């Protein structure tokens, strides 16, 4: 039986690579598009080791319309797209806003120009809880008002959501979208063949923890311990990357079955918040590694606390996370040890 083709832009990235594996294992044929500006080609070997087959990959920039059309020309009968491809470092986006607007917003516009010409109407968009800004109430639901972004990166996600809503409203079914607002992805595939692979100094907490435990970093700096939270450190909703990847498969299925509205939004998280210190202690508990950490000053733009209400995803997508924080951190450590 022929597999349904789904393009995965940024498919060699951290979340993208796990989504590729879950798509294939669910019976789909993922087609990777990635220019490796923020990922490594070795990830393709990891995917092949897990699946036993190579997944087609096109080394192009999603903002290059001619190259993108070339992929759609070559791969007949594409049925949907999962759009991950984007720059994602908050700090860098503050320093280089134009780089972020051109890449993150520009690549989506190019994709939306190309899709209808090939009869491709379904897109799952990789959005972020950053669109909620500093929320007035916790947990945040999909109805929580979005706020002015605290960084150009966050603003690109908000703008892309607006673009997808505007396009859906005039396309009369030609473009149907599910916006997945992720919280904080952590962990690695159980095989330890793919995982988070930051280039340079990590921007995220867990790779910093694992690199510190491995002796690559001298110490972990926790940014601030005077927030209005139980232990003074930031609270986030940490979701295992494999759970997150499975949410994309469910979203693709929903779009292909033409269920729901032209644009739907779902939070993807665990529905629980954990503080930075709780994550540190959970890592020590799960791995038996002691961490060298210090408290530093708070970072500009950091939200004190945010975590998801996941009722809508549970009820309408039938999606629930299944992995504990300790299990996710143990998988991150197993992955770090293979690097």
UniProtKB/TrEMBL annotation:
**Where in the numbering of this chain does the NAD(P)-binding domain appear?**
8-329
Q: Which GO terms describe its cellular component?
A: cytosol
Q: Which cofactor(s) are needed, names only? A: NAD(+)
Q: Enumerate the catalysed reactions.
A: UDP-alpha-D-glucose = UDP-alpha-D-galactose
In terms of Gene3D superfamilies, this protein maps to: NAD(P)-binding Rossmann-like Domain (3.40.50.720), UDP-galactose 4-epimerase, domain 1 (3.90.25.10)
* EC class (word): isomerase
Q: In which pathway does it act?
A: Carbohydrate metabolism; galactose metabolism
SUPFAM superfamilies under this entry?
NAD(P)-binding Rossmann-fold domains
Pfam families xrefs: GDP_Man_Dehyd
Q: Which CDD domains match?
A: UDP_G4E_1_SDR_e (cd05247)
Q: Which domain of life is it from?
A: Bacteria
UniProt keyword NAD present:
yes
- Gene Ontology BP annotations: galactose metabolic process
EC number(s) from the headed UniProt entry: 5.1.3.2
| Gene Ontology molecular function, alphabetical | UDP-glucose 4-epimerase activity
Q: Which UniProt keywords apply?
A: Carbohydrate metabolism, Isomerase, NAD
Q: How does it assemble?
A: Homodimer.
Q: Which protein family is it in?
A: Belongs to the NAD(P)-dependent epimerase/dehydratase family.
Cross-referenced NCBIfam families, in alphabetical order?
galE (TIGR01179)
Name assigned to this protein: UDP-glucose 4-epimerase
Native source species: Hymenobacter aquaticus
């Amino acid at each position: 039986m022929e597999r349904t083709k789904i393009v995965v832009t940024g498919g060699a990235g951290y979340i993208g690579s796990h989504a590729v594996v879950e798509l294939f294992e669910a019976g789909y044929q993922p087609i990777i598009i990635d220019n490796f500006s923020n990922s490594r080609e070795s990830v393709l070997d990891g995917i092949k080791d897990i699946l036993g087959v190579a997944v087609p990959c096109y080394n192009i920039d999603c903002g290059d319309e001619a190259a993108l059309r070339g992929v759609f020309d070559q791969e007949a009968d594409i049925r949907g797209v999962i759009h991950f491809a984007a720059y994602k470092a908050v700090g860098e986006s503050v320093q280089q806003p134009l780089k972020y607007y051109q890449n993150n917003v520009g690549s989506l516009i190019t994709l939306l120009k190309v899709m209808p010409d090939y009869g491709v109407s379904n897109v799952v968009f990789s959005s972020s809880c950053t669109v909620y800004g500093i929320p007035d109430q916790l947990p945040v639901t999909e109805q929580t008002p979005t706020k002015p972004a605290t960084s150009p990166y966050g603003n690109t996600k908000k703008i892309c959501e607006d673009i997808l809503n505007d396009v859906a409203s005039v396309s009369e079914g030609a473009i149907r979208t599910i916006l997945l607002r992720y919280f904080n992805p952590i962990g690695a595939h159980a095989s330890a063949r793919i995982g988070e692979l930051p280039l340079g100094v990590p921007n995220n907490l867990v790779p910093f923890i694992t690199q510190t435990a491995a002796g690559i970093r001298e110490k972990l700096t926790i940014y601030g311990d005077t927030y209005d939270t139980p232990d003074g450190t930031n609270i986030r909703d940490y979701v295992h990357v494999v759970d997150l990847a499975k949410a994309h498969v469910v979203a693709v299925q929903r779009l292909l079955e033409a269920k729901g509205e032209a644009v739907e939004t779902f939070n993807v998280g665990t529905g629980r918040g954990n503080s930075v210190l709780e994550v540190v202690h959970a890592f020590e508990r799960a791995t038996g590694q002691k961490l060298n950490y210090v408290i530093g000053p708070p970072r500009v733009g950091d939200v004190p606390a945010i975590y998801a209400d996941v009722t809508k995803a549970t009820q309408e997508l039938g999606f629930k996370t299944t992995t504990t924080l300790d299990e996710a951190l143990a998988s991150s450590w197993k992955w770090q040890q293979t690097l």
